[in-house]
Amino acid sequence: MGRIIGYAYVVADLLHFGHLLHLENCKRMCDILVVGVLTNKATMEKKPEPIMSFDERLSIISALRCVDAAVTQETYSPLNNIYDIKPDILFESSSHDNPTVNPFGRTVEMPYYINQSSTKIKRRILEEEHANRN
């Protein structure tokens, strides 16, 4: 039997503990973890433009011990990369409304870390900046 390939995807703007926890949990379920990092254009299909550049985000994800390979994801949907990589497991966040079905294996819904998100971090920074101005 071959090694189990897993695929997860992230924006990873303002990398935080929730991102790390998600990817470490994904890695525990596979031998090789490939992580798609969404381009700015792909991110903006559903979210605001990231603060960090794509290259910065890709470099940070590539540097994580739990990530075996980081690849570009050109669309918000992971399907193009799934057809190229053919993972045994597609990891989806429980925060996604319509999880993608993996045609080459199974889809595993991973719990969303509600205590922290890039959106919450950005909001808190803005609130504190506003409070400090007054």
Question: What does the model show?
Answer:
By secondary structure, this protein is an alpha/beta fold. It has a single domain, classed as 3-Layer(aba) Sandwich (Rossmann fold), CATH 3.40.50. The protein has helices at 17-27, 40-43, 54-63, 79-85, 118-133; strands at 5-10, 32-38, 69-73, 89-93, 106-110. A five-stranded parallel sheet has the order 3-2-1-4-5, sandwiched between helices. It starts with a strand and ends with a helix.
Topology readout:
Layout: E1 5-10, H1 17-27, E2 32-38, H2 40-43, H3 54-63, E3 69-73, H4 79-85, E4 89-93, E5 106-110, H5 118-133
Parallel strand pairs: 1-2, 1-4, 2-3, 4-5
